[in-house]
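Narrative of activities, Objective 1.

The group set out to show that a structural description can be obtained from nothing but a protein's sequence at a throughput compatible with the screening campaign. Below is one input-output pair from the validation batch, recorded exactly as produced.
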Amino acid sequence: MRDLPTGTVTFLFTDVEGSTRLLQELGDAYADALSDHRDALRGCFSRHGGVEVDTQGDAFFIAFAKASDALAAAKEGQEALASGPIHVRMGLHTGEPLLTGEGYVGIDVHRAARIAGVGYGGQILVSRSTCELAGADSLCDLGEHRLKDLTAPEHIYQLGDDDFPPLKSLNATNLPVASNPLVGREAELAELTAMLTDSERLVTLTGPGGSGKTRLGLQVGAELLEDFPGGVFFVRLASLSDPELVRPTIARTAGVRELEELAGRRSLLLLDNFEHLLGAAFEVTALLEAGTAAKVLATSRAPLRLHGECEFAVDPLPEDDAVELLVQRARSVRRDFAPDENAKEICRRLDGLPLALELAAARLRSLDSATLLERLEHRLPLLTGGARDAPDRQRTLRATMEWSYDLLPDDLRKLFARVAVFAGRFSLDAAEKVAGATVETLDALVEASLVKALVGTRFLMLETIREFALERFAEADDAGELRARHAEYYRALALTASLDTDVATEQRPEIVIPEAANLRAALAWALERGETEFGLDLLVALEQFWVLGYTAEGMRWFSAFLERADAASPLLRARALRSFGSSASFAGDFDLAERLWEESLAEYQRLGNDHGIAVLLHRLSISALLRGDVEHAHELSERSLELHRRLANDKGAVQPLALLGAIALQTGDRAGGVALLEESAELADRIGWRWWRAGTLSALADVAIAEGRGVDARTLLRDALDLALQLGDRVGLSWYLSQFSLVLVREGRSEEAGRVWGAVEAAAAFVPGGPWPRDADRLDHEVKELADSAFERGREDGRALPLEDVATSLRDGS
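Output recorded for this entry:
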């Protein structure tokens, strides 16, 4: 970040007046004129100590440590542009913004931009705070004006006494004063204003309680004041209980006796909180069909379901905007509050819901962010104490949820509670089979903004809403039965993914990866209820899932259930010990893995289970090789392969084949080793075991790298990356990308190699060990031995790149 001033800072915003008109008039010369204007202003600003925060084509954002310097720079800048074709409006405001790694945060930035926006080319507008610091000399008092951020009026001054038209501040309207400017929502604002200035006549903002529908609607109204000379009117419907009162309330707010009087007026009616008055929705139709020029922007937790209605979903804020909102509101009660990782996690826990964030910010008056985060496990009791002038339904998070719940008929209230059994996202099939939903009833909850429809036939209940639903769920007589049904559904689903080593059909981890939260809930239910065999069975069904990047979690579950497994069947216990060992191996705890596999082998031998014995011989051969006992590893692998072939178990055979190949390479038999690895890869491809094929291709890539065959190595690694991306295998991605980085750095592509390496480091998913020898230390040494300054530059950039994006780019050859 540049050396931006801190403490009391004066902001200067500039904007070119009539840029579209100028482009049409000047044609190709516009680019040169714009460049000359930039050069002139930059010179003026820098001479007076201004620091450029941002520039966007035809606009500047400059920060000054002194208000007097900002005024002098603005005056000199306007004089420099006076004789040219480009004229800019300027706005100045002084405040005490928070400076973060991302730049300035706070309402002062927004206010300065809004002040500039009401002026004209050649005009310099100044806020009261800047005037008080710089002095009123040469400033002309223009009085108080409401700006489009809808906050309290601003006393505005003009530098110099030139004549300009009246400021473009808000004209007569009843839009209420907002306590703070809108945070984020730029894309939504642009889309909504375009819709309402175009052909749309009825737009309904829908979303859950607390998602910011009203604030967004108010801002849309403010932005469109100049487009609706007949007025923009905010109609409050929340306090009405009788649908018969909707029509007269709209008329009274718009200043007419009958709505028909709006016929000749191009006006915008902002109908707020319509969800409890849907029986009066026909009044909106009557208004629009009466030949009036009026348009309607409604806010409602459910659509009005009228012909011509355009429903616009107001989603929770994305993380960056959510953090900005939390910080702004927190700083109103605690000036020194600064964002940290706890603040980001608070925003995630609260689903980015603006109301929840504002209520949480109020708690930061007396709690630090870490303490608040700890207490967010129970949101509803904590998030209370909203503003005294807020509607009752917005004073607490619980009241907001109750408002929506009370509007549901009894059958939907029951379903709403039942859907809370799902943790995270769930499918339509799950909702039907577990909660007894139908397409129609689930859609009704979506309409009520209590459930969110996702891509395809998947759904989500936000956690802030789910906490309220869980309270209702706990009161239900069939809650226990539903939890059992939920657990059984997800165990059955896990079995269809064929992730258990004992299953010969093609593995399909993509079935269970999206269901991770519900699988965890099923395991938690089994542990809580003492359903040990159920839990172990589910864990083993997910054996391959745990090694895709969830090894530590898998180990915790296995440990918890095996402690209680004295009464479990010997076969289930043997399978669980084997699976536990796999997770331990991929987590790098090879000693624990070996002990678990030995115990599992002993169980299989007592049972006389040849398949289990063959699998464990292979697993223990890995342990032997990692200990450096190559001869014993070879013996165990040979026995495993022989037994698998006798059982006609191709899935079992691919594993010792690959390990025998690795042993051959290690003992100097290059041709034999490559042949065995290729045989294993081809067999894995034939039986559809994508995960094993990817790992074997990686082993072959190691051979190509060692022999300097970079092209061959890249081809093999691209195929391995493709398979790992299909499977969501972050462990595999980390290893294959690390190999790719070595290929690139050896080819002299240091910066690119560094980016790849940095992404792997940032992902923190680099896991040594596995079902074939992987010397992570060797790879690390070889890469860093060739690293230079370009590698380090790329490495720093790479830490900001998602692992999957880097893998996709390399897979596609870009």
